[in-house]
Specification:
Strand order of the largest sheet: 1-2
Strand content: under 5%
Number of strands: 4
Helix content: over 70%
Largest sheet: 2 strands, antiparallel
CATH topology of the largest domain: f41 fragment of flagellin, N-terminal domain
Structural class: mainly alpha
CATH superfamily of the largest domain: f41 fragment of flagellin, N-terminal domain
Number of helices: 6
Order of helices and strands: HHHEEEEHHH
Distance between the termini: 20 Å
Shape: rod-shaped
């Protein structure tokens, strides 16, 4: 029953107005942000799960960067080892040529001059190949292994180890092609050194393959976590647009109702006149 002392009708209308207006505001916030969980109160459990997923994604993204760095290290080392093998293969050819019985002293001197230049180049590659300021083929940094985090826990690591290539060529420093016998000794030493480098190259290749496989798994995991997190937190735009339209209509209706309820109070006062 309408009352002059307590306008319960208007109070009820205001209550609905506040509720509808709040729901309308929430719908606008979710549509504009694209998020279904804009605060902890909207979905506490979902927000907690999503936050954990996003934390894992952040760590895995850094792990992916670490994996890329590890691959770059190994690719650089692999390229250097390949260059060393190529140069030493040329040195073998020179040694073979020097073992011709028709080679004159002048010819041997010419062959030896190129041989020594190539020997110096092999040494330079072994000693000066670097990545991020650290030498790769001297055994200084990577000889004992460098550890890369490749997952979302501290135990998810891969250790990259590169054997010192300088060890494989340590016996080459005194080689020469000054005579056919020296050339024979040089060819034998070069064969051993090239075989050693091939072993190092195989080790580098195996580690590179492991990193590439792990990188593929990490990238897939990141994609899946991002998708799962999005499923929890992302708003259904079409559904929320419908909600917004409904709440907007109800809010407008509530505003009209409040106005009508207040007018009703005035009409009741006229009875006393």
């Amino acid at each position: 029953m309408p009352s002059i002392s307590a306008n319960t009708t208007a109070n009820t209308a205001v209550s609905y107005l506040n509720a509808n207006s709040s729901a309308e505001s929430t719908a606008i916030e979710e549509i504009s942000s694209g998020k279904d969980t804009t605060n902890a109160a909207s979905d506490p459990a979902g927000l907690a799960i999503s936050t954990g997923m996003n934390s894992d994604v952040a760590i895995l993204q850094e792990a992916a960067t670490n994996i890329t760095n590890g691959e770059s290290v190994l690719n650089t080392a692999s390229g250097a080892l390949t260059n060393m093998s190529d140069v030493m293969t040329r040195m073998q050819s020179l040694a073979a040529e020097a073992q011709s019985g028709s080679s004159s002293t002048a010819s041997l001197n010419d062959l030896n001059a190129e041989f020594q230049d190539l020997l110096a180049e092999v040494s330079n590659i072994a000693l000066q190949t670097t990545f991020n300021g650290e030498t790769l083929l001297t055994g200084t940094t990577y000889g004992s292994g460098a550890t890369f985090l490749v997952g979302d826990t501290s135990s998810d690591t891969i250790t990259v180890t590169i054997t010192a290539a300088s060890t494989a060529i340590s016996s080459l420093s005194t080689l020469s092609l000054s005579s056919t016998s020296d050339a024979s000794s040089a060819m034998t030493a070069l064969t051993t050194a090239i075989n050693d480098l091939s072993t190092y190259q195989a080790s580098v290749g195996a580690q590179l393959e492991e990193l590439q496989y792990t990188g593929s798994v990490v990238n897939t995991t990141i994609t899946n976590l991002q998708s799962a997190s999005s499923a929890i937190t992302s708003v259904d735009i079409s559904a929320e647009e419908t909600t917004y339209t409904n709440e907007e209509t109800l809010t407008s209706a509530a505003v009209t109702a409040v106005s009508d309820a207040n007018m009703m109070q005035s009409e009741l006062l006229k009875v006393l006149q």
